[in-house]
Write a structure and sequence with these properties.
seven-stranded mixed sheet, 47% helix, alpha+beta, disordered N terminus, 5 helices
């Protein structure tokens, strides 16, 4: 094979080959061919770490060396941390692609660990996913900006917390030191700017809504006070009528007794 082996006490390729799912092998090959076609210096199944074959190694146009690992639902936190440490020791930048079913909306509590890890721990809080059936690509990035105003965090139907774009494997490049759909970061920044402007524009509406709620609450409080006062008035009038009736009955009883004697 064209790839080189590190000196080890035994060859680990058979174990790697058995443990690598067919879908990962296919995506690896497609990505390798794509990177080669667009001019990257790229190798697949390169042994940079003892007892481990890196799926794809790319020398970026920035001169940096990138290890692209293709992760799945079975990728463990221990494996992620181990590879991160080992690549850091040799000065190689680790980047992940995730193989999974893709969805436009992503909920943090509904995804497996590797996705959550990348959304929370990667530099740009993003994850790039390749669909395990169609090989379509989707990239999600978490908007970490705060939209806190007047005591609470505000959300928008038009601008969700997580921005996404779809593409194909042929759209994947190394941009700004990250594996990404080509142009994703610049389009995210444009979207993010629009979202922040929309939020600033929304603030006077929020103020008006707060004032309207405050006014409604004050009016509701006044109505309640009036209802309480009216109830107390009715109760007092009822009590007075009762006392008057009792006085009249007492007078009638005395008059009746007087007539008897």
């Amino acid at each position: 094979p064209y790839f080189a082996h590190i000196d080890n006490s035994s060859c680990d390729y058979d174990k790697y080959d058995r443990e690598t799912p067919a879908v990962v092998k296919e995506i690896k090959l497609l990505l390798f061919e794509h990177f080669k076609n667009i001019g990257y210096d790229v190798e697949q199944e390169k042994k940079l770490i003892s007892h481990h074959y890196t799926h794809i190694v790319v020398k970026g146009f920035d001169g940096a060396l990138y290890a692209i690992e293709i992760g799945t639902q079975s990728t463990t936190v221990g494996r992620i941390e181990y590879l991160a440490q080992e690549y850091e020791k040799i000065g190689v930048k680790l980047r992940w692609l995730v193989v999974s079913e893709i969805k436009e909306e992503i909920q943090e509590d509904e995804v497996f660990f590797l996705k959550r890890y990348l959304l929370n721990e990667s530099r740009n809080k993003e994850v790039v996913i390749v669909d395990s059936n169609t090989y379509e690509v989707i990239q999600h990035r978490w908007d970490t900006s705060s939209y806190f105003y007047k005591g609470r965090e505000h959300t928008s139907k038009n601008y969700p917390e997580i921005y996404f774009e779809k593409g194909a494997i042929d759209n994947i490049f190394i941009e700004n030191g990250e594996i990404s759909i080509q142009g994703f970061s610049s389009r995210f920044e444009q979207w993010h700017t629009r979202k922040q402007k929309a939020f600033e524009k929304r603030k006077p509406e929020i103020d008006a809504e707060i004032e309207a709620r405050k006014k409604a609450e004050e009016e509701s409080f006044l109505r309640l006070q009036e209802e309480i006062a009216e109830k107390k008035k009715r109760e007092a009038e009822s009590w007075q009528r009762y006392l008057e009736q009792q006085r009249q009955r007492e007078q009638e009883r005395k008059a009746e007794l007087y007539e008897r004697y």
